[in-house]
Amino acid sequence: MVSEEIKSVLVDYQQRKMISSLLDLFSEEESFPEEEVWRKSHSQQHYQKEAMLILSGSHSVALNGRTYRGSANTLLLVNSREVHDSRYYPGIDDASHLWLIIKRDCVICQCDEVRNKKFNILFHHLYEDKEKIRMLHRIWEAAYAGVMEPQTAFFGISVIINGIFWDILSVSAPLLPQGTNTREAAIEKARHYIDSTWGKGCTLPFLAELTGYSTVHFQRLFEKYTGRNVREYIRLQRMLRYEEMRNYYPLKAIAEELGFSSASALCHFLEKVRDRK
User: Fold this and answer.
1) CB–CB of 106/128 below 8 Å?
2) Could you give the CA distance from residue 87 to residue 210 in angstroms, rounded to a whole number?
3) CA 149, 152, 155, 159 torsion: positive or negative?
């Protein structure tokens, strides 16, 4: 279930602060020289919109080369193709965060926790009000295109995002499957991570570390509980994302989104998948 601490932040929209490349008035840039070297090799950009609400604790967040200190009830907005951290800084203090991965027809909500330097996924939630999601995209894109005043646009964005938070709170059942054992929960964590990243950067050692198992043991458990081996599952998620993007983006952009080194590498991947059918 959602803890009382998380509930209190989700409903407290009046005290919420915002970090966005279009809202410098609401953001204060800070200097974190000890983190600069790490960020040079741990940044990413992609074609999806994201939002991240800090639920507890505080830490620095980077956006387009600028670093900000975020505390509880700070909302970070990441537009398509904006550069941001690919992972949490290793020196992060205990904190929890709610990520909104905003797709074309749904929003994947993932609540993360970092405790004693270890990463854990607390719960997932799927938001599927397609009308509200289309409205969110329209307002968001109008703001970043300069068609709408940022303050006006981000008020509309906040209203819709608050609706997503209320949707999370309205779920009476636990947001992760009940009746699962520790192994099932660990594999569910890895599966949802792959789903939200479409397999980008999902190496076997990283996924095994995420679940707390050795690489060999993780592979065996993953196939047992999902019916597919890890590579097959990642290949499936990449193909799903490719099908979502193929009518809207050039091949080079899709290759970047899925973590391929070039468009030709993506084409080679697609040929191998088709040959298996």
Assistant:
1) yes
2) 12
3) negative
Q: Which of 104, 167, 165 is nearest to 133 (CA)?
A: 104
- Across the range 4-26, mean pLDDT stands at 82
Are β-strands 84-85 and 43-44 bridged in parallel, bridged antiparallel, or unpaired?
antiparallel
Q: What is the pLDDT of residues 210-249, one digit of tens each?
A: 788 889 999 999 998 888 899 999 988 888 888 888 887 8
How large is the C-alpha radius of gyration of the chain? 19
Q: Which CATH architecture has domain 182-276?
A: Orthogonal Bundle (1.10)
pLDDT given at position 24: 61
Annotated domain spans of the chain: 4-170, 182-276
The pLDDT of residue 73 is 93
CA 251 to CA 256: how far, in whole Å?
Answer: 9
Tokens for 272, please give them: 């191998």
